Write the structure tokens for this entry.
Amino acid sequence: MGGGPDQKPEHLLCTLPFPEPKAILDRIRKNYPHMKVTYRDLSHQDPFAKDSGIPDEFIHFFSAGTNHVQTTPIYKETTIALTTSSGIHGPQISEWVLLTSLVSSHAYHTLHSWQTQHLWGKQSQTSRLRTIRDNVGQRLAVLGYGSIGRQVAHVAKAMGMDVIAFTASPRTTPESKHDSGFIVPGTGDPDGSIPSAWYSGLDQASLHHFLAQDIDWLVVSVPLTKETHHLLGAPEFDILAKRNAYISNISRGQIIVQADLIAALKEYADNEAPVSEGETEPTVVAEQGAGLGAGKKGLRGAALDVTDPEPLPEGDPLWDAPNCIVTPHISGLSVMYADRAFQVLEVNLKRREEGKGLINEVDRKRGY
């Protein structure tokens, strides 16, 4: 790639499931006049078929991962460089993580119920509200400290929380803790300075050591691979039950053994105090310096934007799991999504032009 007049023309094929973003593509055409830019509706053909006309230099995905194409010939039978849009999801997903956690911890369902009934809650009806504990001093554990996990940590730190991080490989030097991928300006943890402690490993013992660090809130943001499939089940939930941790999963549903999560939520809920008149949520007695349900077993709640399977069947017991918020894989949606995803592509187009390596390139052996 380069700007010389004799350069062989290149082809940028955009295959996406929404109307052509003309302003963005015009920007690319202006910056790379030697490049042919074609836009094609995703529904017109299989974008991963060998004869689909996909250029063979590199393929950029609008998703943060590539697990959805790992069985295709493009992934398995070629050496075409694959890049992702990892880094663009942090702002909107971190807001979803915070939103759903606060809805649970601040008894929003009770407050909303009062409003819909035109009720001004009486003192006798506010026992649940008097047990609310803010996030200051609580510990957030990020399982998978990538771009999304770093922005969640950024927000949590601003709320006064202690943050610890877990990665597959050790991060023992300042340089190894840096974020080398795409970063939305003003977000994330570029130099890796937020966590008070880092943990790592690919074995169960390392994971269990991490989970045993007095965790109040676990955010799951690891990629789905053979190693992370059903990474969290009954043994892990038993460890997290020490402080009746809250779990947020914005990764993939298959990371969690769903039946075990439901059981852990039920175990906690079965020991909750009864609902007072006029309340829609049970009372939880909190103790200073201890888990919200000190002495109780199980997990106090969960927020899941991903499930197994998707869509979640109408009769699945997860819908009715206590203290569990389920949303239909929408945490990453934003009006800024397409523009930021194209920004990652444009960074890589420029890096190719300068003879540099690509950012966000997928390691096929690792799966991400």
In short: Residues 1-6, 283-290 have pLDDT under 50 and may be disordered.
